[in-house]
Design a protein that fits this description.
heterodimer; A: mainly alpha; two-stranded antiparallel ribbon; 9 helices; 73% helix; extended; B: mainly alpha; Arp2/3 complex 21 kDa subunit ARPC3; 10 helices
């Protein structure tokens, strides 16, 4: 058993793509609800107290998205009340609620995804598509701290020369522009030196291959296959119209069917898997320690 | 670890560009109902990005040009952290103007991808990558006129800022509702007016301030080191 954090980045990426694409393309209430709750629980389990900020931000998004639809769309038959002579309907409200759950769950999942993927893992995934573009990305990431350090250095030098004042806004902008200009010249010149050094060591002389320390274990491959298979079940159910819902003029959901129920169970497993894996690893760790 | 070899990449590229994207667009409008528009638009965006990146893999780009593109990407990325008025798009446009279409597209797409790790990653990343990438690409195509006349450059910057915001609103609506609704689109455009203004103003301001100095620096590097 492994946490998502320790799995191969390609498996992690595939899992997150599947778990977010399903509620996006199958806006069935059970699926959006499972996705929302599963993602919220996982983010809480992953970040603990630090997750409060994410919860607040997603909560706000959820609220706005829920309320926009009944205010804009007046379709539906069950009128709740009137605002400015236009009806606010139950159907439009529930439609907004359903979309909001689906959309904000995607924001949750991607917050968890961004937390797991560090630059090393990101480069590993990207190098599958293009090793050269991954190299450009890697260089860009390396240049950020370098540029920052040089910016601070230059600003300090300008200050001690008396050229830089942040007393008034015009002077500050002028000073910032001068420092920016110095830094960009430095960065470009420095880049040429780096590029020559890279060329001297054989960069560009043959096809570029990517290096990564990530190795795919059997568990990672099995997890990826499981995610793909479960997604396949959901897609099949959706294509056979077993997970359909239409809100207007009245809410009509497709009848419960074997395939539909299996698909819902499949999605439940997917949404719960990250939390279960992470809890499982934690429990096992404690158990092993207390015995030793 | 070469996961895909070159011939396979080329095959995928042509297959996607000439068969899958048109097929999807046609099939999407004919066979599927409105509910799947978002699916089709997302797939087309991802495929367009794949076409570009697999193409970049094969292209003979000098090491110097690659590193200079990386530096401009880093600058644009840092630029997104400045609040309200951001030089990000202006730097992507300058990259496209002086280093060519490919560098512009790459800088735009990578800036969107990387900065979203701080600003929130999501399915919208594909659209942002494509939108910013195309801005860089267009700047590369129009580089002659943009370098010669400052007025054209500023108009182009304002246009890109507005277009970027309006395109992202289309995506918001498609994502939120089944099918496209003009009413919702108007609502989305209405709420994003502050963003639209901030994009337009920052592009114009930064292209006005940075256009000449940064352009000169890139030109100098190009001439002096033959990038």
């Amino acid at each position: 058993m492994k946490k998502l954090d320790d799995m191969h980045p390609l498996s992690v990426t595939l899992f997150f793509l599947c778990v977010t694409l399903i509620p996006m393309f199958i806006p069935y209430p059970v699926i959006t609800a499972v996705s929302f709750i599963g993602a919220a629980v996982y983010v809480t389990a992953q970040e603990g107290r630090a997750s409060v900020k994410t919860h607040l931000w997603v909560g706000l998004l959820f609220l706005i998205l829920t309320l926009v639809n009944p205010l804009v769309s007046h379709k539906g038959t069950t009128i709740l009340f009137m605002i400015n002579d236009s009806p606010v309907t139950l159907e439009a409200f529930l439609y907004g609620l359903n979309s909001a759950a689906g959309l904000s769950s995607v924001v949750y999942w991607f917050a968890a995804f961004a937390r797991i993927m560090d630059s090393e893992k990101l480069l590993c995934v990207f190098s599958v598509i293009s090793a050269r573009a991954a190299l450009v990305m890697s260089c860009a990431l390396r240049y950020i701290p370098l540029i920052r350090a040089q910016y601070i250095k230059t600003r300090t030098a300008q200050r001690s020369l008396g050229l830089y004042s942040d007393g008034n806004i015009v002077d500050k902008i002028r000073g910032d522009m001068r420092v920016f200009s110095v830094v960009i010249t430095w960065a470009l010149e420095n880049g040429i030196v780096t590029a020559d050094s890279m060329a001297a060591r054989g960069c560009g002389s043959t096809k570029r291959t990517a290096f990564t320390t990530q190795r795919a274990a059997e568990f990672d491959i099995a997890a990826a296959v499981c995610a793909a298979a479960l997604t396949g079940i959901c897609a099949a159910a959706s294509l056979c119209d077993r997970l359909d819902i239409s809100f207007y003029p009245n809410i009509v959901m497709s009848h419960s069917s074997a395939l539909g129920d299996i698909a819902l169970a499949a999605y439940f497993i997917m949404a719960a898997a990250p939390t279960i894996l992470s809890l499982g690893v934690d429990i096992r760790w404690r158990y092993l320690r207390s015995r030793a | 670890m070469p996961v895909l070899d070159n011939r396979f990449r080329a095959a995928v590229k042509y297959l996607i560009a000439f068969i899958m994207i048109p097929a999807l667009a046609v099939a999407g409008s004919v066979a599927f109902d409105e509910k799947r528009h978002i699916f089709i638009s997302l797939t087309v965006a991802v495929m367009a990005l794949l076409v570009f990146f697999t193409g970049y893999e094969k292209r003979q780009v000098g090491t110097r040009r690659m590193v200079v593109t990386a530096i401009m990407t880093a600058m644009a990325l840092v630029g997104r952290f400045i609040p309200v008025i951001k030089p990000m798009t202006a730097l992507v446009i300058l990259t496209g103007m002086y280093l060519g279409c490919e560098a512009g597209f790459l800088a735009g797409a990578l800036t969107a991808l990387l900065s979203n790790f701080w600003f929130g990653q999501g399915p919208w990343t594909a659209f942002m990558m494509l939108a910013l990438g195309l801005i860089g690409f267009a700047a590369g195509l129009l580089s002659g006129a943009l370098i010669k006349k400052r007025a054209i450059l500023l108009v182009f910057g304002a246009f890109c800022g507005a277009a970027y915001s309006l395109i992202m609103d289309i995506w918001t609506v498609l994502w939120y509702a089944e099918g496209f609704s003009l009413k919702l689109y108007a609502a989305a455009v209405g709420t994003s007016v502050p963003y639209l203004l901030s994009y337009v103003i920052s592009n114009v301001v930064f292209l006005y301030m940075l256009g000449k100095p940064v352009g000169d620096k890139l030109m100098r590097v190009k001439i002096k080191y033959g990038v």
